[in-house]
Amino acid sequence: MRKANIASVGLGAVAQRWHLPTIAELTKKGDLNFIAVCDLDETKASETGKEYGLPYYTDVEEMLEKHKDIDVVDVCAGDYEHHTVAKIVAEHKMHPIVEKPMAPTLAFCDVIINSCKKNGVHFEVAENYFRMPNDRILIKLITEGVLGDIMRVHFIEPSGRGRQFVHGAKPQGIARPVSTFGSHSGVCIDMGVHRMSQLRLYAQSEPKRIAGITKQFVPNTERVYEDWGHALIEFESGAVGVYEASQVGEETIRYNQVMGTKGVMTNANYWTSDFPLRAMVDGEMTDIPIERERHTVDGVDVLSKIVVHTDPQIVYENPFREYAIDDWNVGTAEEIMSIANAALYDREPEYGIGGRKDVEMCIALYESSLSGMTPIDLPITEITKYEGMVHDDYREAFGHTPDEI
Questions:
Q1: Which of 23, 234, 302, 405 is the most exposed place for a label (fewest CB within 10 A)?
Q2: Confidence band, pLDDT 50/70/90 cuts, at residue 107
Q3: 224-282 confidence digits (pLDDT tens)
Q4: In which band, very low, low, confident or very high, does the pLDDT at 57 lie, cut at 50, 70 and 90?
């Protein structure tokens, strides 16, 4: 059976920690063929090529021309490069998967979508959180009705970076330049797309409108975007979503909760096995036992399955239980195999357009902040003021805007 040939573009921290080791393990197990790596930094490219025994390149088009048998290109370049690299990949009739956020604005997202559609290829977005074991079982509990009708979904997260407030500094909202176009966007889109994805999937409903506010509390000329934000989300189902992110001040407690008419889950932790669940049993709220089975593969602690002792039981079985892949990288493996199978069997990837929806929710948060916390209706049908500011910055930095690509 043919395996997808995959190459990697962008070999920074995200690729080194998650993507490259996972692709290597999938290749070792016979699911993929790892073909080549590419990065603008020749030292990084050569060192990574040597580590994985692969040819390396500093030019994407050169790599794609020399390896015309590539099926999938895993793009871990900076956020602002996703659309340009994905477009090149699509024009070579290859299938891109881009890291999150899909792109800085909806217009840039549409560059990816339209170029893939024009060239008859699929695209995927590397949204890993909903694919992790805890979220897989949680979403299964929701869809199976264990929590009843979902009323509220809530996510508060600190970054833990410990940047302190600057004495005498005046907090400021969004203003140009919006971004210096480093490797990452602001916290409300960089981590925000993860949380918008989760909140939307927890609510099992599409967002109707969003009101929000963002602030920069620590002025920094090299890091001009926001370091705090808060959003209130109304879903079509009537459920309410709350999201808050912070990269400044004393670290707060990470908190997430899904509350329904029959049960509640609080603080599912991706780094431990914690998963407190309470649900109605015989008319009373009861703690529901959750059991995990684990084993070791090549020295890696691997999850076998999760059993939730509801009646009937709800079970999650790790599809990569025979691989040296930890709980976190189960999500990475699933997203990569999603686009690999899409390329091989000409079928839609699991998430795809969902990545654009997550960006849209974050854009609504920014636009609401610019508009004095006025609620923004979804879907967004015109370029927002916030996106216009990003495009102006982008033109100054790179000489063009999305409609000129």
A1: 405
A2: very high
A3: 889 899 999 999 999 999 999 988 877 667 788 999 999 999 875 555 556 789 999 99
A4: very high
What DSSP element (H or E) covers 158?
strand 150-163
C-alpha 86/C-alpha 394 separation (Å) is: 18
3-state SS, residue 8: strand
Structure tokens at 388: 């216009």
The one-letter amino acid code at 378 reads L
**Closest CA relative to residue 198, chosen from 144, 248, 265, 272:** 265
CB atoms near residue 252 (< 10 Å): 13
How far apart, in whole angstroms, are the C-alpha atoms of residue 44 and residue 56? 9
Q: What is the pLDDT of residues 132-175, one digit of tens each?
A: 999 999 999 999 999 999 999 999 987 655 577 777 778 888 88
> Helix, strand, coil proportions of the chain in percent (round to 5)?
35, 25, 35
For residue 325, give both structure tokens.
């892949």
Query: How is residue 270 annotated by DSSP?
Result: T
